[in-house]
Amino acid sequence: MATREDLENFVSRVTRPEDFGDYWTGVLEGLAEIPLEPQETPAPIRSNADVHVSQVSYHSLGGLEIACWYCVPTGGDGPFPAILHFPGYKGEPGIRRDWGSKGVITLTVAVRGKLRSNSQFDPGYPGLLTHGIEDRDTYSYKGLISDCVRGVDFLLSRPEVDPERIYACGSSQGGGLTLITAALRPEIKGGVSGYPFLCCYAEAMQMLRSYPYDELNCYARAYPSRVSQMLETLRYFDAVNFAGWI
Q: Which domain holds residue 40?
């Protein structure tokens, strides 16, 4: 367990694999070949005088359908700025009417495993952080990151969105996903990342004994022969390794 002094003096390390850029370029190219096929269903019971709310969906990695709440201001002159809002590890994405009432479009993404996006993928909690971790191409977060990237594609397909004013935000897991998505998609012009999760996995395993990071320690105790491969996989999904691209 880390002491307060350990935490205050901690400095993150970039551990980017040599083929990191090529790998993520390939992921993005593969996603671009998947038809987005967006769908929108108005939600009048969730709307108000200032904000029109819809449930939307689009297709992501593996053909999974990803659900979102989409809030659009009813007044003012568009196109409007837009914010992608990414969920935490355990929390469910909410409906951001508060931002809509201020003239900002919001898309809150229910990444795979969340309610409304879990019919084909639902590893549970705990479980998500280590699902498929034996290989970078089967790891759960390849899918979650892809779901966030596709949210950018959805916003760019909408005439009411100003493509020069797309932003991202989130806290904890959402904070990590904000950093990673902003690194992969230069169309995101700014972001707010609150106490980001998905960072410094190897160090977190040593310093912390709380979930979700401790899920990695539980996995290591159960499968000691797989620890080396687990840590290698995580290097491709560490937000610190993406930060230099933002």
A: 4-245
